[in-house]
Design brief:
about 725 residues, 7-stranded mixed sheet, 6-stranded mixed beta barrel, 22 helices, 29 strands, globular
């Protein structure tokens, strides 16, 4: 039976069939019952959101055993009593009729599966059998974990107990890794996740390619708006007039792939005119003369010829920015895997913050609070790793984490060592990794692929075993620890019992560990005991945490440099490194240098992509509350360009990349003056090709489908994903 739902009302389900499993009365009678049933008592359950990684605190309202409303938890720093549109749509995940309902074993082929419903005992028994065989033949290091989400902590623990250290997340090589490396090379520290930007106290904010607001980073958006209300100036560098650019004092519609030229010109203006924070640099930095010499040729006039931004505007913004130091932030956003030299571009952003003295200063980049919660006590040590085994990321000397593509390459080539098993937790690898064909080639070389997910996403069709995890509203998870201006601990606890035969990851990993003979690593009775013991060990009042959802501590809080709080820079010199000797020692530029990147050939455009405010990648495109509002993406085309091509606003077109690959589904043209004429833009996350996701299936185009080539950052292995040149073909 096909169940159609909308955000306007939930239909009572008496028989929903998915993967052959009947569901009885799984949904609330009405989405508005929380407001209508005045005499019915509701239970309030504090927890935190998982629709995106921001993990905002929320309170689930439960009525008659059903979650009927989600409210923001005012005690949560990440949300401050508010939920974004996605967070408010969390019920669409909990009550999605397309959820995976039982463990599944693939008796067909990868990519063309035939599913057999299985008991948990049979499914986990098969996984344990395969993992044991891989370990015996190839060693434990031949198994890797791809993880995205809070529950991944239990899978990482299991993998390390099994004997492998090969765990990764697309959030490094395909997202923020270049930024983290650039800041670490400069300051010895990352800029945090969520970031330590003190926007609410800023006097000048520069955003480069950051779609803040459209990425729905809750507290950060609130801080930005507060900073603007208090008089901060805003400059946004972006080929597209994003929502946040519409609020800017300066929108610099830069030519794509030239951002580093602009950054180097700003650095030159600041050092030549001595607009930097001299006292700060004298105290905390090294390498200013070398930096000044390295940017000698990077004049505003030169940058103007590269970027299409007038030289006078480049100088104006540099002077305005410097005039408000140190209460300034220069942010490259989060997604920074653009062109393959991204760690160096991110380092140039870090250098600007250093020159202006923003690290550890009000309105700049605050120093996060200290704090932590001990791990569960009394666990055995993890097995030692082999010293003679080559590193998968050995070619990338500054990689802070393992990269997804190095694990994929090992599966394809067997080098530098065998890779025969993947555990894939919450990662739709067919849509997150560049070059789908390479991913499929790697998968076909595996002895085992296990997908742990809530929905039958694209990756599940390539799995041998699929394990249904319950949603964040049905489970305990590990603690969420936030090092903001204060230290924050948040708890996830179930608002309702798991639907269908889905299970939380703490349970799945514990049961699998028992079958692998690793039960001593998972001694807790259940998820609540795991959390209670950790809190007791760390001196945290567990009962209070359960009641409030969030606890904060100021004990180790000192967000700004002061007489009693000096910054610590974990660099080789112990200072901010404007000139990086460690880069020079590895044969890299010690100060970033500009590289010209290819521009689109005649008839082609660079395809840019970004976030949609109501969707988190492909994870929410099947959510009936959010799909009703934004069911698909469109193709932004500059109005002048569209008219020159004879494109009518709203007509259907297809995209063709340089390799001749044609988009599987069409897109609607959207005329706009908010985009440069040489670029196209679309929202990321659409183009789901998994038929089990019935609402999202074949809606829109995924930008990753059109990626004809990508580059690798030689410093850290990040994948440059903005080399995408496409042409527009009218739909017949």
């Amino acid at each position: 039976m096909n169940c159609k739902m909308s955000r306007r009302n939930f239909l009572k389900v008496t028989s929903v069939t998915g993967a052959g499993v009947a569901v009885t009365s799984a949904l609330p009678d009405k989405v508005m019952s929380w407001a209508e049933a005045k005499d019915t008592e509701m239970q309030a359950v504090p927890t935190f959101c998982e629709i995106c990684f921001w993990n905002c605190g929320l309170v689930a309202k439960v009525q008659n055993g059903k979650v009927v409303k989600l409210d923001g938890n005012p005690l949560s720093y990440r949300g401050r009593g508010r939920l974004c549109g996605r967070g408010n749509g969390g019920l669409g995940s909990l009550y999605d009729p397309d959820r995976i309902k039982t463990p599944l074993i693939n008796t067909g082929k990868r990519g063309d599966p035939k599913w057999k419903q299985a008991s948990w005992d049979d499914a986990l028994g098969l996984v344990a059998e395969k993992l044991t065989a891989i370990k015996k033949q190839h060693g434990p290091e031949a198994v890797a974990l791809f993880s995205h989400g809070t529950g991944g902590a239990f899978w990482k623990h299991l993998l390390k107990a099994y004997g492998s250290g090969n765990y990764t997340a697309p959030s490094f090589a395909q997202c923020r890794g270049p930024r983290d490396v650039g800041f670490t090379l400069t300051f010895g520290n990352e800029v945090g996740s969520p970031e330590f930007y003190d926007f609410s106290e800023s006097r000048y904010i520069v955003l480069l390619g950051s779609h803040l607001g459209e990425n729905a980073h809750n507290s950060q958006v609130q801080d930005l708006i507060l900073g603007l209300e208090r008089g901060a100036k805003l400059c946004v560098v972006d080929p597209r007039l994003s929502n946040v650019a519409a609020k800017a004092d300066h929108w610099l519609a830069i030519k794509p792939a030239t951002d580093l030229a602009l950054l180097l010109a700003w650095i030159k203006v600041i050092v030549d005119e001595e607009l930097y924070d001299a006292a700060y640099l004298k105290e905390y930095a090294t390498g200013l003369p070398e930096l000044k010499a390295a940017v000698a040729a990077c004049t505003p006039q030169w940058a103007a010829s590269e970027t299409d931004i007038p030289a006078e505007k480049i100088v104006q913004v540099a002077r305005e920015l410097a005039s408000r130091k140190p209460n300034v932030v220069v942010s490259g956003g989060r997604f920074s895997a653009w062109y393959g030299d991204d760690a160096q571009r991110s380092r140039a952003i870090a250098l600007l913050n250093a020159l202006l003295g923003s690290w550890g200063r009000p309105g700049g980049i605050y120093l996060p609070a200290g704090g932590g919660v001990p791990e569960y006590p009394g666990l055995p040590d993890y097995p030692a790793h082999r010293d003679d085994l080559p590193k998968l990321d050995g070619a990338y000397p500054f990689a802070l984490n393992q990269t997804t593509t190095s694990i994929r390459q090992a599966a394809i080539t067997g080098k530098p060592h065998a890779m025969k098993g993947w555990l894939v937790y919450g990662c739709n690898l067919l849509k997150t990794l560049p070059d789908k064909n390479e991913t499929i080639k790697a998968i076909n070389n595996l002895d085992l692929l296990v997908a742990i997910d809530i929905l039958p996403a694209d990756i599940t069709d390539w799995a041998d075993v699929v394990l249904p995890e319950c949603t964040y509203l049905e489970r305990h998870d590990t603690l969420s620890l936030g090092k903001f201006k204060e230290f924050e601990v948040a708890i996830r606890q179930p608002a309702v019992a798991p639907l269908f035969e889905s299970k939380p990851s703490w349970w799945i990993t514990k049961e699998l560990a028992n079958k692998l003979g690793l039960g001593t690593y998972f001694p807790w009775k259940d998820g609540e005991e795991y959390l209670r013991v950790r809190c007791q060990t760390g001196g945290i009042n567990f009962a209070e945490l359960q009641q409030k959802g969030v606890l904060t501590s100021k004990e180790k809080s000192a967000p700004y440099i002061s007489a009693g709080k000096e910054p610590e820079f974990s660099t080789p010199s112990g200072k901010i490194e404007l000139y990086s000797a460690q880069l020079a020692d590895q044969g890299f530029d010690p100060v970033p240098t500009y590289t010209k990147h290819p521009q689109p050939p005649d008839g082609f455009f660079r395809l840019l992509f970004g976030r949609q405010p109501l969707h988190t990648f492909s994870r929410t495109t099947n959510n009936f509350l959010l799909d009703d509002l934004v069911p698909t993406n469109s193709l932004w085309v500059n109005t002048r360009t569209a008219r020159s091509l004879g494109l009518v606003d709203g007509e259907q077109v297809r995209l063709v990349n340089e390799n001749g690959v044609r988009s599987l589904t069409p897109l609607k043209v959207r005329h706009t003056q908010r985009l440069r004429p040489d670029a196209l833009y679309t929202a990321h996350g659409f183009g789901v090709r998994a038929p089990g996701m019935t609402r999202a299936y074949n809606k829109g185009v995924g930008d990753e489908e059109m990626l004809g080539k990508y580059s690798i950052d030689p410093l850290m292995g990040g994948t440059g994903l903005r080399h995408n040149f496409v042409k527009i073909v009218k739909e017949a």
